[in-house]
Amino acid sequence: MTRAWKIEPTGPLRGDVTVRGSKNAVTKHMVAAILGHGASRIGNAPRVGDVEITASMLRSLGCSVERDADTLIVERGEQPASAVPQTFTGRNRIPVLLLGPLLNLTGEAFVPLVGGDRIGPRPLDFHISALAAMGAQISVDDTGIHATAKRLQGTKVKLPYPSVGATESIMLSAVLAEGRTVISNAAVEPEIMELALFLQRMGAGIQLQPDRRILIEGVEKLHGADTRLSGDRLEAFSYLVAGLLTGGQVRVHGCAQERLVTAIETLRKMGTRFDIGEEYISASAPDGLRSAAVHTDTHPGFATDWQQPLLVLMSQARGLSVLHETVFENRFVYVKALQQLGCEIELFPMCLGGNACRFHDTNHLHSAVVHGPSKLVGAQVHVPDVRTGFSSVIAASIADGPSVLMDVESLERGYDEPLKRLQSLGMAITVDEAFEETAD
Length: 440
Ligand code: EPU
Fold this sequence. Notes:
Blueprint: E1 2-8, E2 14-18, H1 23-33, E3 36-37, E4 40-43, H2 49-60, E5 64-68, E6 71-75, H3 95-106, E7 108-112, H4 125-133, E8 137-141, E9 144-148, E10 156-158, H5 164-174, E11 180-184, H6 190-201, E12 205-209, E13 213-217, E14 222-223, E15 226-228, H7 233-245, E16 249-253, H8 261-269, E17 273-276, E18 280-284, E19 293-295, H9 307-314, E20 319-324, H10 335-340, E21 344-348, E22 367-372, E23 380-382, H11 386-397, E24 403-406, H12 409-414, H13 418-424, E25 428-435
Parallel strand pairs: 2-16, 3-14, 4-15, 10-11, 19-20, 23-24
Antiparallel strand pairs: 1-24, 1-25, 4-6, 5-6, 7-9, 8-9, 11-13, 12-13, 16-18, 17-18, 20-22, 21-22
This protein binds uridine-diphosphate-2(N-acetylglucosaminyl) butyric acid.
Uridine-diphosphate-2(N-acetylglucosaminyl) butyric acid (EPU) is lined by residues 24, 93, 117, 120, 122-127, 161, 163-166, 187, 189, 304-305, 327-328, 386-387, 414.
């Protein structure tokens, strides 16, 4: 039995959606907050499963996390524990970000093995070698990562790839380390900049340098601070695409245009017309959509978390489209669900539609060729990860016949109250809390 959404084919989705802060920013802010003396208030916090998981993780360490409407109030306890309990094994990717902070606060740390979407091996070697370079003694076994350090020391770290998690991990470790840390080849995603600004408000010494360098001067003490999260660019894009795909028009509020520059340009080239104001972005395609060749990249390139709704959109554009994934080698796990819904997509191991990436000459199926327009049909599909969930929902809404999406918890882990928002746009969804899967 599984929690499932039943989706009836719906007409054009129309209306307004306001996006709140993103799962990928709020959880890191919650970790940062425990570095300060006194409470921090994180406003515009989304109601996503990952916040609940991270809140219980922090509470298990003796910290307090309260919600007052859209604001999270986070304060670390007098004497935080140094070990994240094993019960959090595989729940999300936050435990590894706690390693440095726990070392700073207690001199030792244990975190269980991290989870998150299964979109590649997702190793933690950058996180671990950076902490080791900062003087931590680290060992990894099949229960998790153990570390000790008298006091972390600032150092120079050159990341082999601009990893979001590793950049955050080093920032969260370096702010209370002794001396200066310089991260070269750092990730510069908007969520990282947001975290840097929050840490600066908490009293951290942080400078953003040209050429992907972040310079951190360790300080003795941080204090609590207040912030308001910016709107989620991944959700904003998803809802704009939901409107386009169904021949409707969704107006998204709460996400700054500057966070969507590449996404807007990609959709514009496909034939989308935009109406952009100070407070909103609205997209429509009255003349239909054309095919495109897109490759994902680190910021400011086309985000890997935008590609799932885009692939569904490509299935309804005229002609052959190509999508080359260069961030995660196994990001196309969700394509099976879209194929069951009738999307004509073929996967290839070579780098199509762009320069060779890290995965060329491997067997990883990381390029997709999409034939449009495909005729979609209702189906029963599993939702293996956050972004897949949304793409399957919007595909189901234009399919011929009803569909059932099983295991929707993973969608709810990352999207803020998606059921309410999609229903308000006109999507016909009912929830079955105990759906019994039938053989096809
Ligand atoms: N990598 C390594 N070693 C490391 C760390 C990363 O080889 O120690 C590699 C990864 O295997 C991957 C690449 O570097 O090939 C980029 O990974 P990154 O560390 O940037 O990803 P992440 O921090 O694990 C975050 C988001 C993802 C998002 C990526 C890329 C969170 C919790 N997750 O993951 O979000 O796709 O950055 O922007 O912030 C999602 O929201 O659905 C999601 C998967």
